[in-house]
Amino acid sequence: MRSVRTAFTFLEVMVVVVMIGILAAIVVPQFGGITSDAKASALKASVAGWRSGIAGYRTRQLLSGATPYPTLAQLTTAGTVLTGDFPTNPYNGKSNVQSVTLAQANARSVVNEATCGWNYYVDNSASPPAAIFYPNSDDAVEKVSGATKSANQY
User: Fold this and answer.
1) What are 70-73's contacts with CB under 8 Å, separation 24+?
2) What is the reported pLDDT for 143?
3) d(Cα 111, Cα 54) in Å, to the nearest integer?
4) At 55, phi and psi to the nearest 5?
5) Cβ contacts of residue 80 below 8 Å, gap of 6+?
6) Which residues make Cβ contacts (< 8 Å) with residue 3, sequence separation at least 6?
7) Per-residue confidence at 3, pLDDT binned at 50, 70, 90?
8) By CB neighbour count within 10 A (0-12 exposed, 13-18 middle, 19+ buried), where does 49 fall?
9) Is 15 strand, coil or helix?
10) In 3D, which of 72, 66, 86 has the Cα closest to residue 121?
11) Residue 2 — very low, low, confident or very high, per pLDDT cuts 50/70/90?
């Protein structure tokens, strides 16, 4: 009697490998931008939370006749402006806030990125009072109308 051997031929194995390669080439690029999209969304949510907290603080202060914007110390004191923990800047992993000058704030300059996650400028004595809060990172976040927008432009 003859014994029958069953196995895949080299050609069949190569066809399967090529098909898996084609599928991987289609699927992998679709998931490639997910990390950057998640960081951009986290950044937008964090900035919105900070600015909302500052706006709420400003409203309370204006109603009571006090200076409208929180100082850096008030901004970083838990429960004064934000009720929860300070969000981490997803681009540099830092959650602390530093004071910057008006020129730095207007230019959205990145200052001490290795140590600080957020930049804050406040001047309650200006007319009108001013406050600028922005992320301390210039990493590219997203394309807007064909141009790349960086994190510190939020």
Assistant:
1) 70/122, 70/131, 71/122, 71/124, 72/97, 72/98, 72/99, 72/120, 72/122
2) 64
3) 22
4) -65, -40
5) 57, 70, 74
6) none
7) low
8) middle
9) helix
10) 72
11) low
Dist CA 9 CA 12 (whole Å): 5
Report pLDDT for 107.
93
Average pLDDT over residues 80-99: 87
Residue appearing with tokens 């429960």:
79
- Half-sphere exposure (Cβ direction) of 111: Cα atoms closer than 13 Å: 19
Residue 64 has pLDDT above 90, yes or no: yes
Q: Which of 65, 87, 67, 66 is nearest to 76 (CA)?
A: 87
pLDDT in tens, 98-147: 999 999 999 999 999 899 999 999 999 999 999 999 999 888 776 666 67
| Amino acid letter, residue 36 | S
Q: Where are the beta strands (DSSP E) in 83-139?
A: 97-99, 118-123, 130-135
Candidates 49, 44, 54, 69; CA nearest to 152 is 44
- pTM of the predicted structure, to 2 decimals: 0.74
Residue 40 to residue 34: CA distance in whole angstroms:
10
